[in-house]
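Lay summary

Proteins are chains of building blocks that fold into shapes. Our project writes down both the chain and a compact code for its shape. Here are two examples, one after the other.
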Amino acid sequence: MTPMPWHDTDLADALDALRRDDAHVETPPHVEAAVLAAWDRAHAPHVDTRAGQVWRRMGAIAASVIVAAGLGQLGRELQRTTQASELARSSGTVLLVGEPILRGEPVRVVRMRVPASTLIAMGVRSATDGEHVDVDVIVGEDGIARAIRVGM
């Protein structure tokens, strides 16, 4: 968009005369005071009540406690996973850990011979080259496998 040249001298003269006439006009003091008061009311700073400050601080504390608890849980899970993978590397076996075994939960160790293709389908590579592989499965009280040990 380009500005258009403006050369209307009559309009410029009329606006200049209006500016000169308006320069002598004063706003009455009561009108000026009312306008300033309305401005101050519309733009007054928000004042927090004491109760609002307390609830905001309590919310911030609760949020930080929740974040700290979540980070602690994440750290424990990472540590447990790291320890399980180190154990698997050091013992020459692979441990696939499901849900953790609860303290005092009765478990059974089931030894079975499975086709090597079954382990490959699960993403586990067997240490033996045979057609079948011996595995130990730790089964929880609910009948769900908690861990599998391969290549004894």
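And here is the second example, written the same way.
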Amino acid sequence: MAVITIFRQAGCKGRYIAENVARTLDYHFADYATAERLMLQCGFQQTPQVYDSVSDFWDRFTRRGMERDQINAMLRSIVLATAQHGDVVLLGRGCFAPLQGLCDVINVRVKAPLPLRIERVMEEHDLSKQRATRFVEEKDALVADFARTSYGLSPDDLTLFDLVIDTGKIDSDAAVRWLVEAATSLVCRPGDPTAAALKVAQVPKRAVAKEFTRRERLRAEKRARS
């Protein structure tokens, strides 16, 4: 029951890698949209007043004070509950931060040279070089600020990651194969801390189980129709 977290820079093919690793391993896949859905479900049960003031959910992360602290605490509880469920690939939103030092978790950073990332964003989003450059720079600043202000960690600290993959040098499909092999080769010694043994709050735990069960049912229905 491995867990893989992937922190990526814009234009690094991180989503492609994460989705294909999850598909190959038949793991669950969770990204920012999953986190938003789960946090809204849990939030309306735990602290509904936090959710009444801002129309854009993630805009709340630009705020400071009690509201930001409450959202951060809830996000952490969702990440821990998702990891404790196991067999999952977590993409983005600093999910590597609360999952340090666990033997069944592989924390991965995906990067690439800036010019290549800008070129990829130009192609993927049909943007001019100027707009693609601004997009990449703003995205980089946003995700770095999120990790720093939410967890007090910098994604530039490579000691926080078990693997660092440069997709300017390594083909994305090769990266998928590496991570699949890594997930099936993990070694946990007796007494090592694991995500599976994490103590998590019941509300997010139930929300995660419900969400993944719903997805499994939809996949089964799709297979039955094909």
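What can we say about the second shape? Strands lie at 3-8, 28-30, 88-91, 105-111, 163-166.
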